[in-house]
Design brief:
By secondary structure, the chain is α/β, with parallel strands linked by helices. The protein contains nine helices and five strands. Strand 1, helix 2 and strand 2 form a beta-alpha-beta unit. The termini are far apart.
């Protein structure tokens, strides 16, 4: 048995321990934060009906219905996702089983507002927020979510999972981002930061011209 295969075998053999996310939100009660295991997170393109219909049967801890990078036409993706979220498959699901999140478009664009509207059509648990750079952005988003929940008389608050390492500003502000209201966990991406830093270095020293 190879070295890596042996490691995998040992990990699988271990009894999973109960792990919960720390309540980072300083302005929210512990009931506002959905504490659960997130060992497997599956991203599902929101414009793919076949994948959407299969998503809840995957047995993943979390599925992310993606309206951002994995879709070409945002309008078609929203329409497709709207149909899925309003189907019996989604509205009658057990919210204590697989967690369902919608990945919206960056808050620096105007597209995320329509994404939020779609997310509230169905029985989703919250939103994954890409390219977050500051706590102020999440505070603003929290206020909007609270308004929508009040209008819909929805007592179960939506959680937020920001992708907090996609830009240099995000890395510098990661502590305050983690303390934002509704934040249940933080996801990590290093590729964009590395690319940004590489580009800056190349431009500064004119390496791209050599």
């Amino acid at each position: 048995m190879s070295y890596y295969a042996n490691i995998v075998r040992k990990l699988v053999a271990r009894q999973p321990q109960k792990m919960t996310c720390r309540n980072f939100a300083t302005s929210s009660s512990s009931n506002d934060i959905n504490q659960r295991l997130r060992r497997t997170v599956h991203f599902i393109p929101a414009d793919n009906t076949k994948f959407l219909n299969k998503s809840l049967s995957l047995g993943a801890d979390t599925i992310v219905l993606d309206l951002e990078d994995s879709v070409k036409d945002k309008t078609i993706a929203r329409d497709t996702l709207s149909t899925f979220l309003q189907s019996n498959m989604c509205t009658s699901r057990d919210r204590n089983a697989t967690e369902v999140l919608v990945r919206i478009n960056p808050l620096s664009t105007e597209m995320w507002k329509e994404d939020i509207d779609v997310g509230f059509l169905g029985n989703v648990d919250g939103f994954m927020v890409p390219k977050v750079e500051s706590q102020d952005e999440l505070v603003m988003l929290t206020e909007i979510l609270s308004d929508v929940e009040a209008k819909q008389n929805d007592s179960r608050r939506k959680i937020l999972l920001p992708i907090a390492t996609e830009t240099p500003n995000a890395v510098l502000n990661i502590a305050s981002i983690a303390k934002s209201p509704r934040v249940a966990a933080i996801t990590w991406v290093s590729f964009f930061v590395v690319s940004y830093v590489t580009i800056c270095i190349c431009c500064k020293y004119h390496l791209c011209c050599k």
